[in-house]
Specification:
Layout: E1 4-9, E2 19-25, E3 28-34, H1 47-50, H2 52-57, E4 66-68, E5 77-79, H3 82-100, E6 105-109, H4 116-119, H5 121-130, E7 134-136, H6 142-152, E8 168-172, H7 176-179, H8 183-192, E9 196-200, H9 206-209, E10 213-215, H10 222-235, H11 241-247, E11 248-249, H12 251-258, H13 263-270, H14 274-286, E12 290-294, H15 304-317, E13 327-329, E14 354-356, H16 360-366, E15 374-378, H17 382-385, H18 389-396, E16 402-407, E17 419-422, E18 431-434, E19 441-444, H19 457-467, H20 479-489, H21 493-503, E20 505-506, E21 529-530, H22 534-539, E22 558-561, E23 582-585, H23 587-592, E24 600-604, E25 609-616, E26 624-626, E27 662-668
Parallel strand pairs: 6-15, 7-14, 8-9, 8-12, 9-10, 11-21, 12-13, 15-16, 16-17, 22-26, 23-25
Antiparallel strand pairs: 1-2, 2-3, 4-5, 4-17, 18-19, 19-20, 22-27, 23-26, 24-25, 24-27
Helix pairs in contact: 5-19, 6-15, 10-13, 10-14, 10-15, 13-14, 16-18, 20-21
This protein binds ligand MGD (2 copies) and molybdenum atom (MO).
């Protein structure tokens, strides 16, 4: 048979949501490229998805179920049939229920797929009907979603393709050159058209090198910086009083809270100069349209929620809405779609307890009444992505904890499991996905044959529903039936289904680039934004916008951050990486410790220790060091990654994990 080209779309955790052209030969993928259905993809995809066949057919791909034979964590498994593996799972789950009740079962899942057929669907229905513990999904975007929705309720941000209209682009705690590459050419085009670029990031990122201004803020100090900028706008009589009077509430209270911060005090806290901040104020005021693209590097610390809220308040205070290319972009999943993945399952959340996924180490070690006795992991690799890794790994290897991992490859978490189930990839099952950067939705059929005996999430959880007698009349039980139900049961579903049928891509009813406060308004009763939303105010000790100062101590003086790798999506594709992890540090911090480029080092704090080598990096500011997220245990000398140093504490809002809030010491080894 000759190779043929088929259409798909990427469901990986990335804002860009690329349409793909997949070349398939005899059911096997031999090439992946970008297509043009989503304009921002413009025919090219990132290197990692172009090489997706390496992930599908590499040595670590799981072809059949495995059952542990050696001691926990020894990595010794034997192949098993599906029937045998599912029998073991059923028996152990029934034993958990008999001994401790269904709440001792915890489903554990996050960002492996952003597709609606694999992220929720039958897994959600199964665990809800079973009465398992609920999972609060707080690895990512919990604090920033709380902040965005608190301030603006449901309102779409500036469309990425509209950045070409901007005269000023501010990248705040975001690194599109690695994490959403299709924004880069749009920024370049805007610059050609005269836009200025500002980057607020502790690192001199690739785009910071080409920026008009780089503010290398200390991690966690964005809150005072943004508040001081707002305060300065009020002080200088530059605040958009008409806009605020018409469209905002809480203005006086916000102003009062911002007035605690002078440019001088904020600059000192952030390791910047007051002059730099004044320069930013001038540039922001004089530029229109001006857009702030806020990222997720910003939210992952003790002040992250307040910081995101303060940054997102700036376009309101400065009056930047109402023009194309002006305002902010956070996540754009708030476009008016009218459908959610929940429509596909229509299953109420049970009144069982809810467990914060970011506290996995403490949950496994300390939770009682009942303790967790079964952990069912899918779309997730917590052994290398959760905080407090030393304890997580120790607990996953506990004899009395039954761990199931459903994944495509033999991950570090799968190594610690009792039963491992092989999962299909998005090219081997149907997927429906809505973007969180690009405001589009794709419906993609399977384009390749499932590898080995791999099964999709819905096949696995559908079978478990049968085994536990949880199927009810009328339940949608297949991918196709779930898609049909999503569109049938949602108000705007039929129009979307029609678009998808016609062209496999859909846009929301609010259009692809609505103007905030012109075409769309916050869906609050008075259609106004809230500068100090009450429910957020109540969540934060000292109230929203209260600042917690830098937690560095003499023992642990360096801030460790763990930004994304260009070659992976979180830990996904880590099996394909051979290069060991390195810690980037500034020349001054290295010299103070007698460390030279390439030296073996240890990095440690009260939670753990990592052994790797150092790289002297002129792009990292003094006082900060960088060990990327997503490394696997094989990438360091002692089997621990940055996650071993991440404290099991949360950010100020929504129980968000504080991945960028570790304080550490470094020495030669
Ligand atoms: N290639 C690739 N793409 C990805 C991912 C990936 O792992 N790899 N991950 C996907 C996912 S899950 C997400 S959530 C997004 C994340 O997308 P981004 O938000 O762009 O990702 P990060 O690299 O986590 O953080 C962005 C920047 O924040 C900076 N930063 C760290 N702490 C602070 C701080 O306190 N203040 C400020 N101002 N900046 C800070 C970091 O130096 C980094 O350059 O990307 C998605 N896309
Ligand atoms: N140190 C540090 N750690 C971090 C962060 C950080 O900044 N620093 N960032 C955090 C962020 S932003 C995020 S989003 C999380 C991500 O944390 P995780 O969700 O744990 O990370 P992924 O690497 O995306 O792991 C997903 C796994 O799902 C599998 N998978 C993919 N598709 C499917 C499917 O259809 N079915 C099944 N069963 N499995 C599938 C993949 O093969 C992969 O092994 O990591 C967090 N961890
Ligand atoms: Mo994320």
């Amino acid at each position: 048979m000759v190779a043929e080209q088929r259409s798909s779309a990427c469901p990986l955790d990335c804002p860009d949501l690329c349409g793909l052209t997949v070349t398939v030969d005899n059911g096997k993928v031999i090439g992946v490229d970008g297509d043009r259905r989503n304009p921002i993809t413009a025919g090219f995809v990132c290197g990692k998805v172009r090489k997706f066949a390496d992930h599908m057919y590499g040595d670590d791909r799981l072809a059949r179920p495995r059952i542990r034979t050696g001691p926990k964590g020894s990595g010794q498994f034997r192949d098993a049939t599906w029937a045998e593996a599912m029998d073991v799972i059923e028996q152990r789950m029934r034993a958990s229920i008999a001994t401790h009740g269904a709440e001792s079962i915890l489903p554990y899942h996050y960002g492996g797929s952003n597709g609606w057929l694999t992220e929720g669907a039958l897994a959600t229905r199964f665990f809800r009907r079973l009465g398992a513990s609920n999972l609060d999904r707080t690895f990512c975007a919990a604090a920033s979603t709380a902040a965005t929705q608190g301030l603006y309720a449901v309102i779409p941000g500036v469309a990425l393709e509209d950045y070409t209209h901007a005269k000023l682009i501010v990248l705040w705690g975001v690194n599109p050159a690695a994490t959403g590459i299709h924004l880069v050419p749009v920024i370049e085009r805007a610059k050609e058209l005269g836009a200025k670029l500002v980057v607020v990031d502790p690192r001199r990122t690739q785009l910071a090198k080409h920026a008009d201004m780089h503010l290398p803020v200390r991690p966690g100090a964005d809150l005072p910086v943004a508040l001081a900028i707002a305060n300065r706008l009020f002080e200088r009589g530059l605040a958009a009083t008409d806009f605020l009077a018409t469209h905002a509430t809480g203005v006086d209270e916000f102003r009062k809270r911002a007035s605690r911060w002078s440019l001088f005090d904020a600059a000192r806290e952030a390791g910047l100069s007051a002059g730099q901040l004044e320069e930013f104020v001038d540039l922001y005021v004089e530029s229109s349209p001006a857009v702030i693209r806020a990222g997720w590097g910003l939210e992952r610390n003790r002040n992250g929620g307040g910081a995101t809220a303060a940054v997102l308040a700036l376009p309101a205070i400065a009056g930047k809405f109402g023009v194309r290319g002006g305002g902010y972009t956070m996540a754009n999943s708030d476009a008016k779609w009218g459908v959610t993945s929940e429509h596909g399952i229509a299953e109420p959340r049970p009144a069982t307890r809810t467990i914060n996924m970011s506290g996995l180490s403490r949950t496994l070690a300390e939770l009682r009444d009942p303790p967790i006795s079964t952990l069912f992991v899918y779309n997730c690799n917590p052994a290398v992505t959760a905080p407090d890794q030393r304890v997580v790994v120790e607990q996953l290897a506990r004899d009395d904890l039954f761990v199931v991992v459903h994944d495509q490859v033999m991950t570090d978490t799968a190594q610690l499991a009792d039963v491992v189930l092989p999962a299909t990839t998005f090219l081997e099952h149907r997927e429906l996905r809505r973007g969180y950067g690009m405001m589009r939705m794709f419906d993609s059929p399977a384009v390749a044959a499932p590898f080995g005996e791999s099964r999709s999430n819905n096949q696995v959880f559908g079978e478990l529903m049968q085994r536990f007698s949880l199927v009810r009349d009328g339940d949608a039980m297949t991918d196709d039936a779930i898609v049909a139900q999503i569109f049938r049961s949602a108000p705007e579903g039929s129009a979307l289904a029609e678009q998808l049928r016609a062209s496999s891509i859909a846009v929301p009813s609010s259009g692809v680039h609505p103007l905030a406060f012109v075409d769309v308004f916050p869906n609050t009763p008075d259609r106004k934004m809230r500068l100090v939303p009450e429910h957020l105010d109540a969540q934060v000790e000292g109230g929203l916008y209260a600042y917690v100062s830098d937690p560095r101590t003499d023992d642990f003086p360096l801030a460790l951050i763990s930004p994304a790798l260009a070659t992976q999506v979180s830990s996904t594709f880590g099996q394909l990486r051979s290069a060991p992890g390195v810690l980037d540090m500034s020349r001054a911090d290295a010299a103070a410790r007698g460390i030279s480029d390439g030296d073996p080092i240890r990095i440690w704090n009260e939670y753990g220790e990592v052994h790797c080598t150092a790289r002297i990096d002129a792009d990292v500011r003094e006082g900060v060091c960088v060990l990327p997220k997503g490394l696997w245990r094989k990438h360091t000398a002692n089997g621990y990654t940055s996650n071993a140093l991440i404290p099991p504490r949360y950010a100020d809002l929504a129980g968000q994990a504080a991945f960028n809030d570790a304080r550490v010491q470094v020495a030669r080894r």
